[in-house]
Structures are given as C-alpha cells and as structure tokens.
Amino acid sequence: MHEDNFDNMKIDDGIVILEIEPNSLIINSKYFYPVLIYDDKNLCLIDTGLPDSYNSIKNKMKNEGFDIANLNKIIFTHQDIDHIGGLRSILSKVPKIETMAHKLDKPFIEGDIPLERSKFIKGKFKSFLFKLLMNYYIKFKKILFKIYKTLENRDILDIAGGINVIHTPGHTPGHICLYHKKSKTMIVGDELRIINGKLVGVNENLMNEEDVKTAYSSLKSLLDYDIENIVTFHSGLFKDNPNKAIKDLIEKFNK
C-alpha cells in the first residue's frame, strides 16, 4: 500500500486488497482499494469504484488469481458514486451477482432518493472539478441498481469464516464497516483515511457538522473488535496498532 509501504496485496487466506486507479480527475485519490473476500463458495467484492473501473478491477483480480466471471456477491460500504459506480459495467458482464448494502442506503442506491453527496456538493462547491463530480451524480441520480440483500448492524455474513456488519452512520445514513473475523481486518469505506502514515477520520469538507459528529461517534462501535488491519478505500492498509489509533481519534475529536 502506498500510505504504509505494504506490498503484498493478500492479507490472509480469504482476503485480498485490489489496488485500482480511478482514471478520473474528479476524485482526489491516486488509487482506490476495493477488497475481495473469498471461500470455496463465495467470491465477494467490497465496493466497485467509479463507472470506468471495470477493466482495472478485472485485471487486478486476474493478477491475484481470480476470474471476475466467478464474482457472485458485492457489498457496498455506502452509496457514494466512487463506491457504487462500477456496478453497472460489472453486471453487464456478470449478471448474476447478489448485491448487498445497509437498509438505510438501499433507497439511494436503487434510485428512489437522490444520492446524499449530490445535494451537498451542489450547494457547497463551485469549482470546475466539483461541478464535474456533481454532473456524475446527476447522471446517476436514477441508478436502478437492485439491492438483493439489505444489511443491518451486527449482521454476520457466512463468507470466508464470517464477516461482521457494523453500522457506522455519518458519512452517509447507511454507511457500514465490515470486519473479517479470520484475518482481524476492518474494512472501513470512507469512515477512516490515512494521511502521512497517520489514521484520520472522515473528509469533513464533504459533510455537514452534524454528520461529522455522527461519524466520529460511530467509531466507538469499531472498538468492540480486535483489529490488526484497517483497509481504507482511498488510502489502503493501516496496521499500526489500529484499536489504539481509533481510540486516540475519538478522544482527540471529543476534546
């Protein structure tokens, strides 16, 4: 990983990080880090990147020894376009995939409600790049992605030894983190980031004050788990005493 000089993409048996390039000026990330969790019956992708991410995901999966044609599950950590946008192109090639998301983000992903970030970006940002991002959201305001399984806090998915669902609202109403028990890995979506090797919280520039408070409050639920690895979608892998780092973040925010 680029933030932490971690070169091996395989964390443990049953879990691999995919490093993909966004290929877009509108996202301030050099790479995205979807996660692949697998066992004998399941090949499950966590988040799908932007609409142009298909080839990068396919190639990275191939490099790790997986055929995207065998993908049978996708879990979304939340509704943002850089997490759900790649689904359409994946489904066009691999139509029989069980999609999953938290019940509170389901209506956004299915197009019943405009995506949360589109309203905020439209009201707050005037720069050229953010206007492009807003157009992305407008284009996808009627997503029509069917979520086949809705998730709730404390659900346990029978995949690769067990995946715990942790509801962490704030960044979006239905944002979730996913804990892979066997490898002690917490997949955090946009709940956490890494900057200069340090674990930091949500991107406050994309959120209102109340939602930021909610996001930091949500971090407390992660402390119920013994974490050895944190995978952030925009920054990659963090391994430096994750539980303490999360606790320190909470304490710093509450000062």
TrEMBL record:
Q: Which CDD domains match?
A: yflN-like_MBL-fold (cd07721)
Give GO MF terms, alphabetically.
Answer: hydrolase activity
* Enzyme Commission number, as recorded: 3.-.-.-
State the UniProt keywords alphabetically: Hydrolase
Q: Superkingdom, according to UniProt? A: Archaea
Q: Does the keyword Acetylation apply?
A: no
Enumerate the spans annotated as Metallo-beta-lactamase domain.
32-234
Q: Name one Pfam family in it.
A: Lactamase_B
User: What broad class of enzyme is this?
Assistant: hydrolase
What stretch or stretches form a coiled coil here?
none
What is the name of this protein? Putative metallo-hydrolase YflN
Native source organism of the sequence: Methanobrevibacter curvatus
